[in-house]
Amino acid sequence: MTILATEGLTKRFPRVTALDRLTVSAGTGVTGLVGANGAGKSTLIKIFLGLLPPTEGTATVLGLSPATQALEIRRAVGYMPEHDCLPPDMSATEFTVHMAQMSGLPRSTARERAADTLRHVGLYEERYRPIGGYSTGMKQRVKLAQALVHDPSLVFLDEPTNGLDPQGRDEMLALIRRIGTEFGISVVVTSHLLGELERVCDHVIVIDGGRLLRSSAIGEFTQATQSITVEVEEGQEPLAERLTSAGQRVTVAGRLLMVEAGSPATFDAVRDAVCDLDLNLVRLEQGRHRIEDVFREEVSNV
Amino acid sequence: MSEPLPATGPKAAPTGVIHDIGYRHYEGPRLGRGHALAALTLHSLRGVFGLGRAARGKIMPFLLAGAMMLPAVVSIAIMALVKQQAIPYAGYTVTMQAVLAVFLAAQSPYLVAPDLRFRVLPLYLSRPTTTADYVVAKLSAMAIALFLLMAVPLTVLYLGELLVDLPGPPHTHDYIAAMVISIVYAVLLSAVGVALASFTPRRGLGVAAVIAVYLLTSAISGVLVGVLSSVSRDSAATWAWLINPFFLVDAVQVWIFGTRPNNDGGYPPGVGGPVAALAVLVIIALGVTALVLRYRKAASS
After folding, report:
1. How many separate domains does chain B show?
2. Where does the record place the ABC transporter domain (chain A) (predicted)?
3. Chain B residues close to A77, C-beta within 8 Å
4. CB B39 to CB A101 under 8 A?
5. How confident is the model at residue A252, as a pLDDT?
């Protein structure tokens, strides 16, 4: 099912062309919208919400047109902006209840859902304190909560990991994955950090300078390079030799060994080799080429 | 509001235990724009009086609301003692104009500035709320607050008069006239105050702008009246009164309800009343137009 689509979408500002004849579509699940700063991601979201009129072309969201049915769209979607958008003198609870009411929920239901949603995004006792005293991570959670509180069928998350430390980033990404799978809400998430999206997205759209660079399922980005990353405490050379002699194709990347995985038997081979050599295995994971690499290749080809 | 809410699981659960019941979808009703408009108006009205804000935010509005009540209380005491009306209904607002102006200046920026400064506006506009809804809600909140500020003391005064039972019939006509004119005051003042405040995301600047406009109009009006009277241009002086927005509305009251003017020398006779009424409408229209244009611009940025 297509949740959003554009056809020859162009947005020109007096000085810059933010979107240039962009034609994309995305289905349910988590869709990553990737591009450098100024690639046109936020402009695209604003057009989908009906806040900006496109110069040319058309867009549809959930089968509705932002030009004529903006209110119906906004009733059914949630939006988490990139920038700060929280009043410091209100508590997260009050604010989320208020935003739920603004989305059309009756007051008592708004309270109930605000409490539920804040719990889901990981805010507990601190939700009664004024937002002004929150850390960046907590503020991002409140911003996410206000986008989810009215149970939309689609949320736009604009740079949700901005300003977060590595742990906060991981937690936010895990939360986004949960929203897309467990909550059953389709997600469009933007980021300029390509690497982090591959962990949560089903589908990635790469735009650059307002133009579509690539749009495909996450598997297509990475399927060409199925490999296993192996890390052992010591003795990666004997392990590499052993695996090579066992017929595996191995490359050494610093402390890591990358083993090309032709079949599940490769995992067994690695396990047996490590056991036989009596090594301490630190990590054994499915390695993938980062989306960055794909992106870089595509850019150099253009 | 005090009935138990059976579905709020976490609150009803035994201490310290949070059960993860997973994500639940919302199947209930989704109300329309009118509901959101009412919610935003109520939220803003509470904010004007500092409810739901820190104690610091409540001091100013309640101090000023208290100040508005004082003449009513004193007047009732005087009526009880000497059996004579102390303050006419028609003159209450004009007498207390400085308090209303300070209230408008202090509280208008609270309504609009934080949403601009902390960029909450995009959250409203990404919901089924249009810029027009936003403007209407903010204006209504301020107008209702100002109306309460005038109507409550007037009503207390009227109830006092009925209880004291002055000789002669009660001044019901004057009371009703004053209540109706309070609505005009409320709409005019809120249109000017909120429009001025909406142009800056900084609250201090908004307060200064609103109070400056009030002081400027009342000073220009006062100086002109003084100068024109001293050179015996009395009819010109009656026009000069209308520069002050409070006397402008008073002139409308005199024209419509035939009350006694609350200035020295009265208002221009004949076309004076209709002109004043027209001026009130034009100022309100200008304020609303400025607000709509301002937010249309803010929405697209």
Report:
1. 1
2. 4-234
3. 126
4. yes
5. 81
pLDDT band at A279 (very low <50, low <70, confident <90, very high): confident
Has residue B11 been placed in a domain? no
Pairwise CB contact (< 8 Å): A74 & B36? no
CB contact under 8 A, A79 and B128: no
Are the C-beta atoms of residues B31 and A106 closer than 8 Å to each other?
yes
3-state secondary structure of A136: helix
Name the CATH code of domain A2-218 (choices 3.30.470.20, 3.40.50.300, 1.10.1740.10, 3.90.480.10). 3.40.50.300
Q: Is residue B38 part of a domain?
A: yes
Report if residue B19 sits inside a domain: no
Give the mutation candidate from B127, B136, B138 for the A interface (greatest A CB count, under 10 A).
B127
Interface predicted TM-score (ipTM) of this complex, two decimals: 0.86
What are A218-237's pLDDT values in tens digits?
Answer: 777 655 456 778 888 888 88
Cβ contact (<8 Å) for A112 and B8?
Answer: yes
Higher model confidence: residue A294 or residue A160? A160
Q: Which domain holds residue B149?
A: 34-300
What is the average pLDDT value for chain B, to the nearest integer? 90
Estimate the share of chain A in helix, then strand, then coil, as percent rounded to the nearest 5: 40, 25, 30
Residue carrying the six token digits 């080809």: A301
Q: Give residue B222's pLDDT.
A: 94
List phi, psi (to 5°) of A234. -140, 165
pLDDT at B71: 94
- Cβ neighbours of A51 in B, within 8 Å: 122, 125-126, 299-300
What is the domain partition of chain A in residue ranges?
2-218, 226-292
What fold does the segment set A226-292 form as a domain? Alpha-Beta Plaits (3.30.70)
